[in-house]
Amino acid sequence: MGKAGIGVNTRLSAIGRGLTLSTALLxxxxxxxxxxxxxxxxxxxxxxxxxxxxxxxxxxPGQVIVNKRGVKKEILPWKKDWPTxxxxxxxxxVSRYGSVTFTCYGRDFIEGGMNEAGLVVDExxxxxxxxxxxxxxxxxxxxxxxxxLDNFATVDEVLAHLDDLRPDGExxxxxxxxxTGQCAVIEYLRGEVSVYAGDSIEVCALTNTTYKQALSxxxxxxxxxxxxxxxxxxxSYGRFVRIAALLRDxxxxxDGAAADYAFRVLRDxxxxxxxxxxxxxxxxxxxxxxTRNNPSIRWLDLKALDLSxxxxxxxxxxxxxxxxxVSALLEDYSVEANRAVVTRVLGRSxxxxxxxxxxxxxxxxxxxxLEMIIQNPASRTRKTQIEVRSDE
Length: 392
Known about the structure:
The chain is α+β, with helices and mostly antiparallel strands. It has one domain (11-385): Penicillin V Acylase, Chain A (4-Layer Sandwich). It contains eleven helices and 23 strands. It has helices at 11-17, 21-28, 141-151, 155-160, 211-217, 236-249, 252-255, 258-268, 335-347, 353-363, 365-375, and strands spanning 38-44, 47-55, 63-67, 72-75, 78-79, 82-83, 90-94, 99-103, 112-115, 120-125, 138-140, 166-168, 172-177, 183-189, 192-197, 205-206, 274-281, 286-291, 298-301, 314-317, 324-325, 331-332, 383-385. The strands form five sheets. Strands 15-14-13-10-9-8-3-20-22 form a nine-stranded antiparallel beta sheet. Strands 16-1-2-17-18-19-21 form a seven-stranded mixed beta sheet, covered by helices on one side. Strand 1 (38-44) and strand 2 (47-55) form a beta hairpin.
């Protein structure tokens, strides 16, 4: 498996020599997605960090969730952007690891997070085509990400269990990393999964184009011996190339701690639409973040939190507190608090009926599922148990 942040493989130079300047210019004309999210991971020695910028054209609220180990998850299956409300096989598992996650859609409908083993899963926007119904349980993409954090400790384990569930819904692709510095890119294109790991992952980063497309632009940039200044751009290719250069050039003695440097990289690729910047410090089991409305850096230390099922799941407004440790501000999870956050998001959707319906179906399903099971006994007739062996 590849080491996060090892820089850019020399094979990129060979790719660049195979493209003429005119070809490179044509490639740059390919349109990219407007949402400007960025994620990356790198390591130096015992320091392993992961950075994420959440960018969006409109502000929306968010929550930090502290998830506990030993909690049974029971969710409705999904098709496209909608839950299968009745006569669908329930998907169940019991979390093996506690985690800290971020969401605006409600508990277990996450945008990213890190578990106590140091596994990080996060996403950026990309047009995705997920596999058709093939008999595997279908779950929404945010729940698919929570499943990884609940059950696995390493990138190898995640990749070994990609066939457990069939993700569906969001147009996302995923960067996964672990406490050893390994990382992998997971994309769903044309109904099939594409994985970049080991020797096939040259830069541990994602923006908003396919990994293959983004990687092809690195050797074209002047910072890597090419003839074009790509890295100064703010589009998906520009941010990817700039991240590649910054990760390559990181020097611990000159630039300071890896987590601090990760915030510098995030600042360098941020925009006016950056709502939240998160750094997952796997080496210290610490999750740090700041927001546009509250730029003070706050954190939670997973090693200091009671992640046993003897305590409640905890929640925290993503804008609250700081600077420093905000564990004293954590509150017990409740259905009412969960719904309040989702309702605030719905209230900012500018009346777009399709968006409201999708968010309501996605964000309220966790809580509504409990009510639907009671109201519709038939939905309990068939269950799919996802078994995760404890020795894996």
